[in-house]
Design a protein that fits this description.
Distance between the termini: 68 Å
Number of strands: 9
Main location: membrane
Largest sheet: 9 strands, mixed
Structural class: alpha/beta
Oligomer: single chain
Radius of gyration: 30 Å
Protein name: Potassium transporter
InterPro entries: K+_transporter, K_trans_C, K_trans_N
Strand order of the largest sheet: 7-6-5-3-4-2-1-8-9
Membrane topology: Multi-pass membrane protein
CATH class of the largest domain: Mainly Alpha
GO molecular function: potassium ion transmembrane transporter activity
Shape: elongated
Strand content: 5-15%
Number of domains: 2
C-alpha cells in the first residue's frame, strides 16, 4: 500500500506540473493578448508630439529605460509577486479585492447579509493574531461614509475597465493594420488602413453574439507565435544595429531623459505607460487559470519577449534618426508581410480577451446589485492610457487594505506598498491628465456616465430593500388567513420572490388583498448574492419553515457567488422541489429523533423550526442500498448578531428503522409522507411565479437631485432593462406580477 501510495503521489505530482504548464500555455491567449501587442504602439505614441528623436540618442535610450523599469516594477514585482497572492478563493480582479475586504471588515453595503453566509466553505477568513485589532479596520467600520467611498473606488475601477474594453480593440487593431503604411505608398494607404480596421472591428463585435469558443483554441498559438516573432526580431536588431543597447537599461538614462526633455518628456510618459496595458488581466483572469501558471507564463516567456522586442526597436532607432518611428520600420522587408498578418491576428486576440473580461465584469456588477439587468451571452493612445492607470491605482489602494485587513500585516508595510507603487502610477496618471483636452476627457466622461448608472441602481436597490424591510408583514398575519376571511387555497406551488430573508414581503400581502387566494404550497424565495466568487451547489439552498407544518409554507434562500452563473428556470424548479423534499424528510426525522429521546410531541419540534431555524440542504450521494443521504447544516437564529450555532448531520431515510413500531414514530412517518405527497401534488398541478412589478417615486419633500435620480433616472433604467421575469426566464403562463409603488 505504501508503494502504491508513493507511485500515485509521484504520478499526481507529474500530472500536476503538466497541468500547470498546460494552463500557462493556455493563458497566453486569454491573459497576455493585450500586453503582448503593446510594442506595436509604445514608441510611436511616445514620440508622437512632445519629443523628437535626436542624434544623441538620449531620448530613445531614456524611453527604453523607462519601459524596462516600468515593465519590471509594475507587472513583474507588483502583480506577479504581490497582487496575485490577494486572490479570493482563486479568483482575482477588483471585485475579488472588494469581496475580501468586506468579509474581513463590516464595510459591505449588500443589504441581506446573514450570519449563516459565514458558514460557507468558500467564506474563508484568516483570523488576526491575538490582541491585534487594526485601527484601520475600526475606522472603516465606524463611518458609513467610508463604506460608500470604498464602493465608489471599486466602481471607478470597474467603470475604467469597461471603458478600456471599449477603447482597446480600436487602438490595437488600428496599430496592427498601420503596418500597411510602410509597405504601401502614402497615396494608397490612407484609403486602406481605416476601412480595413473598421471591417475587422465590425467582424470582431459581430462574433460576440455567437461566441468565440469555436476559434478560441487558436488564441494561445497565435500569441505564442507573436511573442516568439517579436523576441526573434529584437535579437536580430540588437546584434545587427547596436549590441551595447543593454547599457540603456540603467536608470541613469531616465534622469538624462527628463533633464533634457523636461516638461515635454514628462508629458510623453503617457505614451510609455502603454507598455503595461493588459497587466491588470493577469489578476482579473486569475480564476480561469492559477497563480503558478500565470507566474510561469509571464516570468519565463512574456516578460523576456517584451524586453527583447523593446530593446531591438531601440537598437534599430539608435542608428536610424530620420525615419518615421514605427514598429514595422525595424522589421526586415523580407518578412514584413507575414509579421503584419501575425500582428493583426494577435491584436484581434488581445481585443477579444478584454471584451470577454468586460462582459464578465458586467455580470459581477449585476450580482452585487450595481448594474441594471442586461443579457450577457457567455460565449487607446493617450485616451487608453488614462483608463489603464486609473484601474492600476484602484488595485494598489485596495491591495493596501487587503495587506492590513486580510493578511494582518503591520500598516507600515501596506503604507510602503501604497507609496512605492502609488507614486509610480501617479506619475503616469498625471502625465495622462495633461492630455485631457486632446482626448483624455473621453474615458473620464465614459467612466462618470457608467458610475452614475451603477451608483444610481445600487442606491435605489438599497432603498427598495429598506422599504420592504420596514413594510414586511408579520407571521401571525399569514397564519390568520383562512376560509373565515374568505381566503382560499388553490392547488399548486406558489413561489413568491423577494429580497427579504425574514418576514412576509409586502407584495404578497398586496397580492392576497386583491386576489383572496393563494397556493396550497407556498414558498418565499430569496435569490441573493454573497461576497464570495462561488457558492458550492451543495451549500446553495437554505431552507426553513414559515409557520407550522400543516400550513405548508416554506422559505428558501438561494445563494450565488459573484462569479456564479444562475441556473435556468426548468432545473431551478425541479431542484427547488428536490431540496424542499429533503428538508421535509430531515425536519420530520429530527422530530422523530427528538420524540424518541425526549418524549416531545411532533408539533413542538416542528414549530421550533418554524421560527428562526434554516437548514442548508445538499445531497452528498447514494449509499450501497440506494438510500439517499443528505448533508445538512443546521443554523439557528440566522439573523442574530452573535451566538449562531451550527450543527452538521447526515441522515438516511430507511423503512426498516428500529423505531418504526413506536406509535409516535409511525404517526410522524405518516405526517411526513402526507406532506411529501402534498408537495409532489402541488408540483403536478403547476408552479406559479409571483414577482413584484415595482415603480419608484421619491417621497414628498425630497431634494431635487433625489427626485431626478429616482423618478426619472432609475425608472428609465428599469423600463429599458430586463425585468426580473425575463432574467429568470419565467414562462409567461406561469407569471403573476404584483404592482408595487415604492415611495422612498
Amino acid at each position: 500500500m505504501d508503494l502504491e501510495f508513493g507511485n500515485c503521489w509521484g504520478n499526481s505530482r507529474k500530472d500536476s506540473w503538466k497541468t500547470i504548464l498546460l494552463l500557462a500555455y493556455q493563458s497566453l491567449g486569454v491573459v497576455y493578448g493585450d500586453l503582448s501587442i503593446s510594442p506595436l504602439y509604445v514608441y510611436t505614441s511616445t514620440f508622437a508630439e512632445d519629443i523628437e528623436h535626436s542624434e544623441t540618442n538620449e531620448e530613445i535610450f531614456g524611453t527604453l529605460s523607462f519601459v524596462f523599469w516600468t515593465l519590471t516594477l509594475v507587472p513583474l514585482f507588483k502583480y506577479v509577486f504581490v497582487v496575485l497572492r490577494a486572490d479570493d478563493n482563486g479568483e482575482g480582479g477588483t471585485f475579488a479585492l472588494y469581496s475580501l475586504i468586506c468579509r474581513h471588515a463590516k464595510v459591505s453595503l449588500l443589504p441581506n447579509r446573514q450570519h449563516s453566509d459565514e458558514a460557507l466553505s468558500t467564506y474563508k477568513m484568516e483570523e488576526p493574531p491575538a490582541k491585534m485589532n487594526s485601527m484601520v479596520k475600526l475606522l472603516l467600520e465606524k463611518y458609513k461614509a467610508l463604506h460608500t467611498a470604498l464602493l465608489i473606488v471599486v466602481l471607478l475601477g470597474t467603470c475604467m475597465v469597461i471603458g478600456d474594453g471599449l477603447l482597446t480593440p480600436a487602438i490595437s487593431v488600428f496599430s496592427a493594420v498601420s503596418g500597411l503604411e510602410v509597405s504601401m505608398s502614402r497615396k494608397h494607404h490612407q484609403y486602406a488602413v481605416i476601412p480595413i480596421t473598421c471591417f475587422i472591428l465590425v467582424c470582431l463585435f459581430a462574433l460576440q453574439h455567437y461566441g468565440t469558443h469555436r476559434v478560441g483554441f487558436l488564441f494561445a498559438p497565435i500569441v505564442l507565435a507573436w511573442l516568439l516573432c517579436i523576441s526573434t526580431l529584437g535579437l536580430y536588431n540588437i546584434f545587427k544595429w547596436n549590441p551595447h543597447i543593454y547599457k540603456a537599461l540603467s536608470p541613469y538614462y531616465m534622469f538624462k531623459f527628463l533633464k533634457k526633455t523636461r516638461i515635454s518628456g514628462w508629458m510623453s510618459l503617457g505614451g510609455i505607460l502603454l507598455c503595461i496595458t493588459g497587466s491588470e488581466a493577469m489578476f482579473a483572469d486569475l480564476g480561469h487559470f492559477s497563480y503558478m501558471a500565470i507566474q510561469i507564463a509571464f516570468t519565463f516567456l512574456v516578460y523576456p519577449a517584451l524586453i527583447l522586442a523593446y530593446m531591438g526597436q531601440a537598437a534599430y532607432l539608435s542608428n536610424h534618426h530620420h525615419l518615421q518611428i514605427s514598429f514595422y520600420a525595424s522589421v526586415p522587408e523580407s518578412v514584413r508581410w507575414p509579421v503584419i498578418i501575425l500582428a493583426i491576428l494577435a491584436s484581434v486576440v488581445g481585443s477579444q480577451a478584454i471584451i470577454s473580461g468586460t462582459f464578465s465584469i458586467i455580470n459581477q456588477s449585476q450580482s452585487l446589485g450595481c448594474f441594471p439587468r442586461v443579457k450577457v451571452v457567455h460565449t487607446s493612445d493617450k485616451i487608453h492610457g488614462l483608463a489603464v492607470m486609473t484601474v492600476m491605482l484602484v488595485t494598489t489602494c485596495l491591495t493596501s487594505l487587503v495587506i492590513i485587513l486580510c493578511w494582518h500585516k503591520p500598516p507600515i508595510i501596506a503604507l510602503c506598498f501604497l507609496l512605492f507603487f502609488g507614486s509610480i502610477e501617479l506619475l503616469y496618471f498625471s502625465a495622462s491628465l495633461m492630455k485631457f483636452c486632446e482626448g483624455a476627457w473621453f474615458p473620464i466622461l465614459l467612466a462618470l456616465f457608467l458610475m452614475i448608472i451603477m451608483f444610481l441602481w445600487h442606491y435605489a436597490s438599497i432603498k427598495k430593500y429598506e422599504y420592504d424591510l420596514h413594510n414586511k408583514v408579520s407571521l401571525d398575519w399569514l397564519l390568520a388567513l383562512g376560509p373565515s376571511l374568505g381566503i382560499a387555497r388553490v392547488p399548486g406551488i406558489g413561489l413568491v420572490f423577494t429580497d427579504l430573508t425574514t418576514g412576509i414581503p409586502a407584495n404578497f400581502s398586496r397580492f392576497v388583498t386583491n386576489l383572496p387566494a393563494y397556493h396550497r404550497i407556498l414558498v418565499f424565495v430569496c435569490v441573493k448574492s454573497v461576497p464570495v466568487p462561488h457558492v458550492p451547489v451543495a451549500e446553495r439552498y437554505l431552507v426553513g419553515r414559515v409557520g407550522p407544518p400543516e400550513h405548508r409554507s416554506y422559505r428558501c434562500i438561494v445563494r450565488y457567488g459573484y462569479r456564479d452563473v444562475h441556473q435556468d428556470i426548468d432545473s431551478f424548479e425541479s431542484e427547488l422541489v428536490e431540496k424542499l423534499s429533503d428538508f421535509i424528510q430531515y425536519d420530520w426525522y429530527r422530530a422523530r429523533a427528538s420524540n424518541v429521546s425526549n418524549n416531545e410531541d411532533d408539533g413542538s419540534c416542528s414549530n421550533e423550526s418554524s421560527g428562526h431555524r434554516l437548514t442548508v440542504i445538499g445531497t452528498m450521494g447514494l449509499c450501497e442500498d440506494s438510500v439517499q443521504l443528505a448533508s445538512v447544516s443546521d443554523v439557528v437564529e440566522i439573523d442574530a448578531p452573535s451566538g449562531t450555532r451550527e450543527r452538521r448531520v447526515r441522515f438516511a431515510i430507511d423503512g426498516d428503522n428500529e423505531h418504526d413500531n413506536d406509535s409516535e414514530s409511525v404517526t410522524v412517518h405518516h405526517q411526513m409522507q402526507q406532506e411529501l405527497e402534498d408537495l409532489y401534488a402541488g408540483q403536478e398541478s403547476g408552479i406559479a411565479f409571483i414577482l413584484g412589478h415595482s415603480h419608484v417615486r421619491a417621497k414628498p419633500g425630497s431634494s431635487v437631485f433625489k427626485k431626478l435620480a429616482l423618478n426619472y433616472g432609475y425608472n428609465f433604467l428599469r423600463r429599458n432593462c430586463r425585468g426580473p421575469d425575463v432574467a429568470l426566464k419565467v414562462p409567461p403562463v406561469s407569471l403573476l406580477e404584483v404592482g408595487m409603488v415604492y415611495v422612498l
